[in-house]
Amino acid sequence: MKRLRSLDALRGFDMFWIIGGQGVFAGLASLTGWTPLVWWEHQLHHVKWHGFAFEDMIFPLFLFIAGISFPFSMAKRVEKHISRRSLYIQIFKRGLILVLLGMIYNGLLNFGFIKTGSTAENGILSFDFSTMRFASVLGRIGLAWMLATLIFVNTGRHSIRIIWCAGLLIFYWLLLSLVPAPDYPGAEKFSVEGNFTSYFDRMFLPGRITLHDPEGWLGIIPATGTALLGMLTGQFVMWRKEGLTETKRSGYMAIGGIILVILGLLWNTVFPINKNLWTSSFVCLAGGLSLLLFSLFYLIIDVWGYSKWTFFFTVVGMNSITIYLAQRMINFRYTSDYLFKGVINWFPESWMPFLGSCAYLAVVWTFLYFLYKKKIFLKV
């Protein structure tokens, strides 16, 4: 089956906000004071605990997209007659590589060294794993995707996969609703200190841990549900049935997205929407909005064929993990200041945040465009 152009564009749209889009819109809002832009700028910040903003959807949207991709890659492997053993090896390899990359992002190679000995010359450098943060965004993506993939591979029917997804979300809801944190007796069961997810991480997550880690162990359970929602979507896109036109397919996905959003809002009344805890209501709301976005991109790009406008996002989406890591390791801000700061200084001070963000985004995108033209892609 041909590659979904909408998927690369949507992945790039998602990463756009991470590589500088947020700063561009914040600068525009500050410069113009236009009410819609000011409102949107507020949407580009995480809520502190309960609640939801667009910024909270960037992470689950990426995991949802990773889920959509898998049924297509699995179909290619089946066509090549790759053995089940090889498939499992590839699944575990990808998941564990993402965990490792997440640890590198956190500073595995240069953080947490301790020096012993009386002088630098006779001292010994060694890793101090007690100060290392092991949990990460990439780690959660890797583990949740891996578990969802194992469920998908070992369940042949669509209905069983839906039951698995619902079961994970209901189990997580019941766990947090019925089991409070023993080390904070009397605390509200969905509060920062009183929830069981944070308690479990305080007890069993290795390395540095404070009161709560947003990418800890138990959150992998509902995040697996997010990945499964993406895989169910990918399977639906591949499904062929007489009378099911591509326009109808887009419409059905949009209806499914609306149903998930409503379910998330209803569930919010008993299980608050919370990205930090990755609550089941959050999975439904973010999953529904992700499905709505994908149905729109799919309709416009893959069904109607309007794809020229997507090139900017496609360049980003084809190397999403590369730029996520590169922003941690390469000082793009230094380069953008070196190239553009002299010109930017000619403008009034009120323009500088906007123009500085545009310059940074231009440098990052040019870097990605160079990789794109050279066909250099980091594939995990």
What do these coordinates show?
The chain has helices at about 5-30, 35-45, 60-80, 85-105, 135-155, 160-180, 195-205, 220-240, 245-265, 280-305, 310-315, 320-330, 330-345, 350-375; strands at about 115, 125. It has about 375 residues and is mostly helical. The protein has one domain. Strands 1-2 form a two-stranded antiparallel sheet. A hairpin with a 7-residue loop joins strand 1 and strand 2. It starts with a helix and ends in a 7-residue tail after the last helix.
Provide a compact summary of the structure.
The chain has 380 residues and is mostly helical.
What characteristics describe this protein?
single chain; 380 residues; mainly alpha; two-stranded antiparallel sheet; 14 helices; 2 strands; 65% helix; 2% strand; globular
